[in-house]
Q: What sequence folds into this?
């Protein structure tokens, strides 16, 4: 059979009918698009709510942890500050005891020390005291020069002019300082 197409509508109505069909098609297409956009927006909104809830729980957890361990953290900070201060003090510490023992062993008889000064910053040794005779003072100088950590001993010439009961003041540079590793 041959299809018959008989159109009894006027051309104006046909044109109007085509526009109506196109309009209905576009309207249906836009309705489907709006429906899918609504579905997507609802899922995004649900995701936002879920993420906000997770963020709030996480923030509460962080606050709880910091409150719980805040005192411990403060103690740790205090201990770390004390350790830093102790390390600074330890770097400045020198053990003079072995050198003092060595120094006291080389002092000859007939010499008495009134004061002993070891300046850590300038590396200077100063001895003041009395010697019974000039030979005792010269022996002290020789004995001090045998120590490897004492440089040249300076005796003022005015102190060498006296023969007995000499009040002396000796000064010298310390060659190397021994740091303790304790």
A:
């Amino acid at each position: 059979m041959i299809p018959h197409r008989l159109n009894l509508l006027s051309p104006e109505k046909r044109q109007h009918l085509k526009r109506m069909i196109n309009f209905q098609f576009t309207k249906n297409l836009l309705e489907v698009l709006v429906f899918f956009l609504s579905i997507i927006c609802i899922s995004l909104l649900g995701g936002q709510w879920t993420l906000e809830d997770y963020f709030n729980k996480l923030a509460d957890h962080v606050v709880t942890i910091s409150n719980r361990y805040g005192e411990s953290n403060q103690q740790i900070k205090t201990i770390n500050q004390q350790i830093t201060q102790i390390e600074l003090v330890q770097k400045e510490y020198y053990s003079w005891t072995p050198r003092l023992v060595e120094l006291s062993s080389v002092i000859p008889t007939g010499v008495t020390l009134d004061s002993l000064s070891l300046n850590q910053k300038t590396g200077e040794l100063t001895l003041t005291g009395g010697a019974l005779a000039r030979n005792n003072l010269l022996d002290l100088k020789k004995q001090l020069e045998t120590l490897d950590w004492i440089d040249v001993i300076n005796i003022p010439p005015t102190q060498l002019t006296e023969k007995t009961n000499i009040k002396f003041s000796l000064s010298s540079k310390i060659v190397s300082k021994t740091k303790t590793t304790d």
